[in-house]
Q: What sequence folds into this?
């Protein structure tokens, strides 16, 4: 179903993205902050000749799954904000849905309305492929966000987070912290195990740990909810009486994980989060719990999708690239946030 | 007798069920083109006979000749194949399907699995025309038709099978007068085509109107067959139907006429829309009032309305002068009324629960303190009561399901004994109760009355009503037609009243 | 339990006092009155033999494979703590199912209660007064939802499956609207301290579960309410004609399960330190599974609290043993399915044997 390569070389994720956008070029240990945030440029202040200069109005249709957790809510929210920053974007947001048939109908409506571009975060990438192809055939460029289609021809541009890279970042961070101690006990609380994104994260984690001779000693899966996280963590803590490092895939369920840890009175380990919620970042900032770091899975992908769709329709290229056309694939980086660099990220973090 | 050939001849039909001989030798002879009436009291064996004809049951002995040839009917389909169709009282139609779909249910007109709608619709239209009801559209939903219309659909279904013998089980029970006339027209049309009809009804006047010949069953035996309607008097028929065979022992009535006791139960102007008309009912302490009439005459409904299980349209019920809130069973129970319902198993008992729980279910408050039950006391009390009623087998923690019908009835009675009821409403108290236990139950009812309880007994069995009650109320089609002391009535008179609403 | 009294009652009042005393064990097969707790345990164990066997097998597997990590006091308490929330819901579910109904909305009611009692407004009020405000809010929301369910079913004549399905959708939706799908974190430390505490080494949540289970057992087996529940579930028409106010009783059953959901919501908030519209996900299925493998008849008329407690413990222990052995959730799901079938089959065999005996 996925075209994502399973076995990437460790480190390729650092250059995996053909481009790095708003959350660019920040590594866990060396944060050379990027120039400034492009998204703040409104068309009025745009420099002559820059990409932000107003062009023909672009009608963009946007559809995403139901905002049933913080990260997904933030996707839609940041997408709206990105569109509002441009006078020449007319964004049409379809009601978020977890029903494939309804989402297909939404895209069909966009096609019938003759929008200029469609930004689509499918509930199920495979199921949305045919209708995306239909849009492409109708001459409407489709920007595929986060969950990939089956067929590369179904999207003009694909904006991806880096699930594998998240695992790699988390693993690499642990390796660094462990400092060569190959006996360190590592535990992992995954999200919904049946999802490819969970499998990718775990694979990256495992691969990265292998580099420094570590492996995952205890692994449980939760369900991205607070309750699920609490339950999984309670059992996990019993399974592993002594832990050195714990990676939790998702900061939403992390609230429950932290509750379980506190209730069990455990503090002998370092916990790393995932996704990068504002809650988690505040905890990192305060530095009074086991949560010392989190790996970001950007919730600004939809926003980037909209900006790219605008460039596509207006015939512009990505400014910092020599290439004239907008690239086919953009993969976002998964940086590690710690107390040292949390201030940079906390503003773009999502509230869970 | 005429020279007609018999279409169907049954002789010496015997059917036994465990413990009961339902048919003990029945003869029936039906000719093509006639309306043959089957008469008999409840339990005379009519239903069993019909079920044998439609091959739902297999006879244990006896011979069936069909069209002059000895025939066996092993399955219901074989009966339909030779041309026997039955229309039961409870119509077996699917309300959510159309008329045409119902007519061809089970033998759909189809080609390679695809139903031939237009073809079957046309066939139904032809059948409806033949039945003189062309106004019933094949595409109409059966659920939207009146009972009369549904009956026509049932007949159309029967005729769709090339029926030569049509059995109608009390077809007029659900119809009003005009509809009955329509039905008769349809029947005459069919007999004119040579179809034979076996017609079952309690209403003697209908039999006079439509019938050609009569067979009378009593206690599973043919007491008369092939009587010409024109030559037989109503008195003869009643005589044939009631000639006594089983004697029950009824307890003696008290010497003091009980009407003189104080009034306990009084229903005034009670009615239930569409079921029974305004009626008054007064029962004195120590009195047993028998309420009789045909099934569907409104007897059970009257009891249930008095009890509050149905909400009376008009009227009031008082017990010992205190008016009871309308439509509330708990209020009636608190006022001292008890009901032993007609369907003991589905309405009266918690079959899977222990005897003692069935006994105490209406008196839980007595065994509770602050809502907490004292089960030991419950069992003790239930034990006393069931012992005094001689419920067998003994043991109050046994599930009620394991008891026989008579003992189950005693459990229901024990429930109300426990409450010291003022009024006891008994609906068919001896249905499904064997002969021996019947006398015990009669005895029990009488002793309750002697203790001052006002008792109302509903029964279809005339001799039971006459033998047990002090006073008899006859209802017919939702109205009281007669009321008299039991000693002033005899069985023939009651049957007359029940069937014709007047004394012949 | 006494209801309206506006009719003069010369003879007996439902709910009048009687003598109290000890009574027999659940289901009352033994004819004689029993001698307290031991007898209760004995008869319960007999009736629930299939469940006991299943639980023992899981425990043996746990001890063999995970050794001290399983047999550890801490781990046992963890299992009990995890069982406590769904356990309380399952106790309520036992009553509804015994009474001939079903409640598909339990998870959604837990979510709504948890959200309602952790809103900024409720928490502010609790801060100004006492954390008990949050508890009362959760209980009131649960009872309110149950009341709506009960009235729709009893007086609106809507099938319980449909009425509670509607509640499932709308309560969860309302929870999402109220919380804006955000996780609401509890700031009231006194609340967290109270429910997070331990008494004599036993977590408060486990104590709550024990109390609810015991109260449920007494209510079902020792009170008029319980007896009426069995009657209403076993044969509603017979119950009605015996003088029980079936509609009113049905409403009370759904309010009862609603209150249980409110209690569960409080417990869940304490466990996760949050209220969320995602709380209680699929509780309806977990609760029904626990109740049914416990031996309560899905068609009503027979119910067992002890069985339900076993059912909950079996599922929770199973999950624990799998995690201790680092097994994935898919294997666990297969085992869960097998356990349901095996426990029910075993239960049927043993039940039919004891019936014929």
A:
């Amino acid at each position: 179903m996925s075209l994502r390569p399973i076995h990437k070389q460790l480190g390729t994720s650092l250059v995996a993205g053909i481009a790095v956008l708003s959350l660019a070029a920040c590594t866990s240990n060396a944060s050379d902050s990027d120039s400034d945030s492009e998204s703040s440029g409104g068309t009025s202040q745009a420099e002559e000749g820059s990409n932000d200069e107003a062009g023909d109005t672009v009608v963009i249709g946007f559809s995403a799954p139901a905002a049933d957790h913080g990260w997904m809510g933030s996707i839609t929210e940041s997408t709206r904000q990105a569109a509002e920053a441009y006078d020449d974007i007319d964004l049409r947001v379809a009601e978020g849905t977890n029903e494939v048939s309804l989402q297909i109908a939404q895209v069909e409506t966009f096609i019938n309305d003759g929008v200029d571009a469609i930004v689509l975060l499918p509930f199920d990438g495979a199921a949305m492929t045919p209708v995306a192809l239909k849009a492409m055939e109708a001459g409407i460029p489709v920007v595929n966000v986060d969950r990939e289609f089956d067929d590369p021809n179904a999207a003009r541009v694909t904006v991806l987070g880096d699930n594998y890279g998240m695992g790699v970042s988390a693993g690499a961070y642990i390796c660094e912290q462990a400092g060569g101690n190959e006996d360190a006990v590592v535990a992992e609380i995954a999200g919904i195990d049946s999802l490819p994104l969970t499998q990718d994260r775990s694979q990256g984690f495992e691969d990265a740990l292998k580099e420094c001779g570590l492996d995952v000693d205890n692994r449980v899966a939760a369900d991205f909810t607070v309750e699920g996280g609490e339950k999984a963590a309670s059992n996990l803590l019993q399974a592993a009486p002594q832990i050195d490092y714990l990676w939790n895939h998702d900061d939403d369920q992390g609230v429950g994980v932290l509750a379980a840890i506190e209730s069990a009175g455990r503090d002998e380990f370092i916990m790393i989060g995932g996704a990068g919620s504002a809650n988690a970042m505040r905890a990192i900032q305060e530095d009074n719990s086991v949560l010392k770091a989190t790996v970001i899975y950007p919730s600004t992908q939809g926003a980037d999708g909209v900006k790219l769709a605008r460039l596509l329709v207006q015939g512009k290229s990505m400014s910092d690239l020599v290439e004239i056309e907008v690239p086919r694939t953009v993969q976002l980086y998964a940086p590690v946030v710690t107390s040292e660099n949390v201030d940079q990220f906390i503003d773009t973090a999502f509230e869970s | 007798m005429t020279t007609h050939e018999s279409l169907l001849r049954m002789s010496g039909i015997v059917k036994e069920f465990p413990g009961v001989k339902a048919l003990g030798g029945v003869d029936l002879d039906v000719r093509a083109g006639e309306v043959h009436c089957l008469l008999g009291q409840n339990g005379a064996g009519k239903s069993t006979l019909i079920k044998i004809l439609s091959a739902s049951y297999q006879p244990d002995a006896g011979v069936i000749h069909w069209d002059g040839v000895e025939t066996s009917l092993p399955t219901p389909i074989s009966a339909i194949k030779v041309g026997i169709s039955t229309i039961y009282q409870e119509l077996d139609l699917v309300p959510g399907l159309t008329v045409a779909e119902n007519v061809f249910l089970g033998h759909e007109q189809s080609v390679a699995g695809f139903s031939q709608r237009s073809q079957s619709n046309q066939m139904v239209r032809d059948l409806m025309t033949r039945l003189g009801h062309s106004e019933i559209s094949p595409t109409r939903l059966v659920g939207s038709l009146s009972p009369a219309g549904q009956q026509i659909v049932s007949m159309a279904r029967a005729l769709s099978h090339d029926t030569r013998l049509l059995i109608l089980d009390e077809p007029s029970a659900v119809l009003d007068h005009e509809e009955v006339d329509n039905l008769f027209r349809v029947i005459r049309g069919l007999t004119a085509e040579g179809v034979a009809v076996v017609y079952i009804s309690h209403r003697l006047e209908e039999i006079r109107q439509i019938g050609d010949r009569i067979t009378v069953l009593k206690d599973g035996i043919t007491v008369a067959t092939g009587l010409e309607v024109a030559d037989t008097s109503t008195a003869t028929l009643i005589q044939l139907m009631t000639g006594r065979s089983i004697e029950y022992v009824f307890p003696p009535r008290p010497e003091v006429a009980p009407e003189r006791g104080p009034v306990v139960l009084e229903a005034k102007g009670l009615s239930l829309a569409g079921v029974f008309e305004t009626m008054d009912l007064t029962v004195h302490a120590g009195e047993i009032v028998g309420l009789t009439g045909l099934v569907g005459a409104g007897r059970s409904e009257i009891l249930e309305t008095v009890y509050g299980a149905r909400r009376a349209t008009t009227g009031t019920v008082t017990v010992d002068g205190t008016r009871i809130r309308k439509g509330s069973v708990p209020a009636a129970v608190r006022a001292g009324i008890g009901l032993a319902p007609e369907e003991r198993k589905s309405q009266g008992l918690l079959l899977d629960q222990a005897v003692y729980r069935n006994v105490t279910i209406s008196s839980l408050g007595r065994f509770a303190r602050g809502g907490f039950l004292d089960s030991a006391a419950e069992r003790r009390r239930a034990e006393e009561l069931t012992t005094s009623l001689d419920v067998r087998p003994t043991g109050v923690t046994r599930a009620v399901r394991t008891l026989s019908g008579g003992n189950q009835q005693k459990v229901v009675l024990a429930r109300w004994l426990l409450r010291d009821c003022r009024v006891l409403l008994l609906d068919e108290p001896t249905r499904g109760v064997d002969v021996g236990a019947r006398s015990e139950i009669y005895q029990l009812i009488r002793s309750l009355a002697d203790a001052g309880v006002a008792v109302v007994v509903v029964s279809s069995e005339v001799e039971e009503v006459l033998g047990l009650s002090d006073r008899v109320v006859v209802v017919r089609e939702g109205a009281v037609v007669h009321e008299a002391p039991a000693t002033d009535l005899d069985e023939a008179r009651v049957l007359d009243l029940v069937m014709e609403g007047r004394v012949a | 339990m006494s209801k309206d009294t506006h009719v003069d009652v010369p003879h007996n009042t439902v709910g009048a006092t009687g003598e109290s005393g000890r009574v027999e064990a659940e289901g009352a097969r033994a004819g004689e009155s029993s001698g307290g707790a031991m007898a209760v345990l004995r008869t319960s164990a007999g009736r629930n033999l299939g469940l006991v066997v299943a639980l023992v097998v899981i425990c043996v597997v746990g001890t063999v494979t995970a050794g001290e990590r399983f047999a550890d006091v801490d781990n046992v308490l963890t299992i009990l703590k995890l069982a406590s929330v769904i356990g309380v819901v399952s106790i309520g579910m036992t009553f509804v199912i015994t009474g001939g109904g079903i409640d598909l909305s339990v998870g959604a009611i837990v979510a709504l209660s948890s959200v309602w009692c952790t809103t900024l407004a409720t928490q502010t009020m609790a801060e100004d007064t006492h954390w008990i405000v949050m508890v009362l809010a959760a209980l009131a929301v649960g009872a309110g939802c149950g009341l709506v369910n009960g009235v729709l079913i009893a007086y609106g004549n809507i099938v319980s499956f449909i009425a509670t399905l509607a509640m499932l959708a709308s309560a969860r939706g309302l929870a999402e609207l109220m919380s804006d799908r955000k996780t609401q974190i509890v700031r009231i430390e006194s609340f967290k301290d109270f429910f997070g505490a331990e008494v004599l080494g036993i977590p408060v949540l486990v104590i709550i579960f024990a109390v609810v289970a015991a109260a449920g057992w007494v209510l079902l087996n020792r009170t008029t309410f319980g007896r009426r529940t069995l009657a209403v579930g076993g044969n509603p028409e017979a119950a009605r004609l015996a003088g029980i106010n079936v509609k009113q009783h049905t409403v009370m059953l759904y309010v009862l399960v609603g209150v249980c959901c409110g209690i569960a919501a409080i417990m869940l908030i304490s466990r996760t330190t949050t209220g969320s519209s995602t709380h209680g996900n699929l509780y309806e299925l977990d609760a029904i599974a626990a109740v049914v493998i416990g031996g309560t008849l899905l068609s009503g008329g027979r119910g067992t609290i002890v069985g339900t407690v076993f059912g909950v413990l079996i599922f929770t222990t199973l999950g624990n043993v799998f995690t201790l052995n680092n097994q994935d959730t898919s294997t666990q799901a297969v085992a869960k399915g097998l356990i349901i079938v095996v426990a029910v089959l075993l239960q049927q065999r043993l039940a039919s044997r004891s019936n014929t005996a």
In short: Chain B has a mean pLDDT of 85. Chains B and A do not touch (no CB pair under 8 Å).
